[in-house]
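FAQ: What does a ligand-bound record look like?

Like this one, built around flavin-adenine dinucleotide:
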Amino acid sequence: MRPIDPNRVYDVVIVGAGPAGLATAVYAGSEGLSVLMLDRRAFGGQAGASARIENYLGFPTGITGMALMARAYNQAQKFGVEMAIPDEVIGLDVPTRSDKDCFFLTVSNNERVGARSVVIASGARYRRLPIAGIESFEGTSVHYWASPLEAKLCAGQEVALVGAGNSAGQAAVYLASQVSKVWLLIRARDLAATMSRYLVDRITGLPNVEILTQTAVTDLEGRDGVLEAVRWRRHAREEDVRRPIQHLFLFIGADPNTDWLSGSGVALDSRGFVLTGADAAANRRPLETSRRDVFAIGDVRSGSIKRVAAAVGEGAQVVAAVHTALAR
Ligand SMILES: Cc1cc2nc3c(=O)[nH]c(=O)nc-3n(C[C@H](O)[C@H](O)[C@H](O)COP(=O)(O)OP(=O)(O)OC[C@H]3O[C@@H](n4cnc5c(N)ncnc54)[C@H](O)[C@@H]3O)c2cc1C
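The answer part, i.e. the structure of the complex:
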């Protein structure tokens, strides 16, 4: 990888090479902007780690996340986008009077990147349960998504699902049509406070979904990455349960990758996601943050729809806003 030129100021620097960042790169590159995209791990983001994406428009038989993202990566390169991967951005400097038209991003190896505009596309991480060794079951038995691929793996079996929000409710309804039984485990006393009424009604009407309130997973048993049993505690009854279950679904929220924004003046919501538009400050454009000419898109954005297509759409949309920013 080439070192970053400290004297160059890019039209746009994109932090994160998931679907949102890659879409920005493709549209910005194809429209003649000078672009640098950085990612701390690899291109593709969460989508790249998805075994199969079944709901992305235009791929009726599905496509592996990595194949989809690799096409986008090649497309961005074709349009002359520069990439710095792996390179972690650790800070976004508030411009001083002397460099008021230029942002500086600090990269973990102490390199600095100059930018006229910045697109934050650093995504989010799905929350894990605090259970030792849970990562050894990920990819085979512990799932953070419920698509036809996961449903096929557990067709006709009993599954456990943890979560009380709408994404958990949607997954429970879908899985119930594919598996013999869904154990829906929630910490609260009922679902009504966190899940939309229509989903609560649908779930309670499904004969093969059993809702266990005030319940928490306490342990996972298995070998060689294959789950054999899930243990949970029903706190209200002081009862410990062990069930032979091979698939556990977790829908307990996501944490944004926004630590690197501390001290930057970019406003975040109470959960750490980046505020944009009118929620961020007065007179802001739709994907603009509280800092002028700094934009946020995809899963890192407060209120985002956590889907590949939504991230890609915002990547296309933000480039129009970047043009407006550069023209000022
Ligand atoms: C298992 C799984 C399956 C999924 N399946 C589907 C599906 O079938 N259909 C669907 O529509 N959606 C699916 N999703 C959701 C979808 O993947 C996400 O909504 C989408 O990837 C969000 O894109 P993004 O670019 O906003 O963020 P991300 O994909 O999270 O990418 C963010 C990138 O930013 C990088 N980054 C973070 N911090 C920094 C930093 N400080 N410096 C540099 N780089 C940084 C990360 O390394 C990452 O590559 C799935 C998600 C998961 C986890």
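Follow-up question: can I read anything off the structure? Yes, for example: The pocket of flavin-adenine dinucleotide is lined by residues 15-21, 38-41, 45-47, 49-50, 53-55, 88-89, 121-124, 126, 144-145, 147, 257, 260, 298-300, 306-309, 311 (CB under 6 Å).
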